[in-house]
Design goal:
By secondary structure, the chain is an alpha/beta fold. The chain is built from 20 helices and 9 strands. The strands form 2 sheets. It has a 7-stranded mixed β-sheet with strand order 4-9-8-3-7-5-6, sandwiched between helices. A two-stranded parallel ribbon has the order 1-2. Helix 14 (about 325-330) links the parallel strand 5 and strand 6. The N and C termini lie far apart (about 90 Å).
Amino acid sequence: MLKSNYRLVTLISIVTCFNLLFAFVSSRWNSLNGRPLIYFEYILLVLFCAWLRNKWLRYLLFAGMVAVDILHTIAQHYHHDDINFILKLSQLFRSSYDPVFWGGILCGILLLYVSTSRFVHLIDASQDRKADGFAENTWTYSVIAFLIVVYILDGINGTSGCWPESMRIKGPTKQINIAGTFLGPLWSNFKEYQRGKQPLGNLTDYSVRSGQLSPSYKHFSDASRQLLVIVESWGAIQDTELRTVQEAVFSDALASKYKLQFGATPFFGSTSGAEARELMQKEPAAYYSVLSSGPQEHQTLITRMKQQGKTTMAFFPFQWHYGNAFLFRKRLGFDHIFSISELRAKLSPNVSANTENQYDALDDEVALSEAVRQASSQPKTFSYVLTINTHMPFQLANKHKISPDYQAFVSRWGTHFPTETSIDHYFRILALFKALALSLTDGVLDEVVIVGDHAAPFTNDAERKLFSSSTVPYLFLKAIR
């Protein structure tokens, strides 16, 4: 009987420790994720697996639940829905991660294998619980009792939707989400994935969800030369002094050529959600709707620009297959599409390459410079650039790190940031803005919208708190004529 009790306690300890580990990582990665300390389904897994006689099915259930939990946590961290994030995992093997990353992946797989093996071994041993005097139903009652205790604690704590609002007891201290259901978020993510298969016209307008037009739809008129830039991980920084530093880059260089209007707009989802917002005025699922069936008869920003007689061009300095970037732009109807391959062929094989994250790409400045050059050389154009250098995980290139500008910036503003990574990321966006402002000083373009896609998915909670969790900044430039 003592052996069976030991096995039961060990099993519950394994699933509880896994949950606490994921909850800790989730809270460090994203304080808004709201992952509970333990999912009820893990507790039920102990009971369900004890009834199963097939060892391999028990392996599959435990390892599968842990793997999906990990993927869900990472997907939420990067503002993705689960299914589309999983579909993008193949891109891991077409990207340049360092050995430490792959070492971490291998260690995680090993930990999962060892834990799963231990879990299944204990379940196997429990099948013989009658032999050592352990009552047939005691195992079941013990697990159910633990489940009820967790449920009651969660209800008293007042954070779970499992209890009606009127029944929750809320204390004066900060609430902790003790428990919750695993299936709820998965079902919500599945419905979000299914929305991406609907025709574009059936999806919700961004303005309905946010209460305002996206910056591109709000500001672009029928002017002759227009440029839209979506900046990777440019979040709305809360520090007013740091926000002023970013704004000053443009106002100091362009105030004599352009009227400048700074603002903020709500964001939903990942970079693909930002593209749906700015190019279609739609919810994030619109990106996948276009990949699935094209825009059909829906009026997109590209449709509007072509109706105005403009040549439409899309620039992205990375590989065409990342996020199905080329197919998305082709189905939207861009006249010309320039990925890393086209940019290298047009400019030079030796143009500066991105070394700041895992993506095989050119530096953003290459794409921006070429976009401005081509837009300036034609009478009626609409150009769109999506940047990549500041994508997470991010490490500032050495050429920036050793520059006098960087040393001066750290000396003046370093105390405003919680970590070196947050300093570096902010400085890299600032460098990008300086290059963009410089390319616009001739004032040839009529209208420019520069907007963030989403808040940077930093791994540190203090880093995330530097930025708004719901809005991204934008800048609208209108030429003075």
